[in-house]
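USER:
Class, as today's exercise, take the chain set out below, and explain how the chain folds.
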Amino acid sequence: MFQQLKTVVSGAQILFVAFGALVLVPLLTGLNPAMALLGAGVGTLLFQLCTGRQVPIFLGSSFAFIAPIIYATQTWGLPGTMFGLFAAGFMYFVFAALVRWRGIEAVHRLLPPVVIGPVIMIIGLSVATVASNMAMGRAGGNQVMDYQQSLLLAAVSLSATVLVAVFARGMFRLVPILAGVIAGYVLAAMMGLVDFAKIANAPWFAVPHFITPEVNWAAALFMLPVAIAPAIEHIGGVMAIGGVTSKDYTKTPGLHRTLAGDGLGVCVAGLIGGPPVTTYAEVTGAVMITRNFNPVVMTWAALFAIAMAFFGKFNALLQSIPMPVMGGIMVLLFGTIASIGLKTLIEAKVDLMAPRNLVIVSVVLTAGIGALELKFGSFSLVGVGLCSILAIVLNLILPRAERGPHDGVVEGQDV
């Protein structure tokens, strides 16, 4: 009985660790936080179904889709965007089939660090102006909140996040985003910038509002390449949790099964109106600290997430967070995503003195930050989708240099 209670509490703790990032994505993209909780819970249970509940992984909202969701919502509307996110899940099935057919090396050869690195950088940098505008209280080119107050809120939320991330110890170090949001929210409440009436009027129990996807092939083709980065991130996440538990999950239950489980979660999230899901590094960190490797813990975390999705007042509380508070978080978050892309290039020792590597990285960064758009009639490619295709095509067609000390070859692979 005590052991079961310990497992339940551990599940609640996992959700607490993942919570800040989980609800941040819908708050930044305008989606419903309740649907993010529901999508994460259902997605995790589906992942466990596909993997025989052998892997202690919790699936939460993916940061890689923040910029694409913002762009797609403005371009095709929310129903069309949801169809695009649903379609993005099929990219995981493609990778799963590729891994099952040719092994993990085929994925590395198609998507080496010189391709993945700059694409990840674009995911963060392409929406850098969105973060800055939110921190300044601006939306749609208009000043919707007082400039001075907005900067103060953004600075406090950013500072709190940085302090916790750098100086905190133990479990607290895993929740810097949550700490930043709380600090900014408390200050906003003290300044009278929080509307508590909406929270008071919200029902305790409320069924989340489902979004019905609308078939839009332009949105689908835009989102498909976006899924490349989180799919690769998934592979790293599975290997990371395997290192913590000393088990090779790429063999049992198999990387193809974990990819398929993640992809199924992404598809379901798109169908119900939530953000796509992915593996969470902070959850892996929590597993490493607690040394609780039981996958049942993740089952309880998923069930708690589903229950929270129907808590109406909690959803209203999340939506009452002032925009500059989230803007302060985004200033760090989007820069962090770009830094991860840079880290990918550095760790793989990609030689930018090699002409082909320099061409790939330069073209992708310029096209992505400059918002280069490729149009075919009514269909257009822009942002992460276009950059992913450019990087893959350039990597395939540009001649590879002879192997040598500066050829950009890493662990037996050309990059």
Remarks:
- Residues 135 and 327 are 4 Å apart (CA to CA).
- The beta strands are 59-61, 138-139, 142-143, 277-279, 373-376, 379-382, 409-410, 413-414.
- The chain has a mean pLDDT of 84.
- The two ends are 53 Å apart (CA to CA).
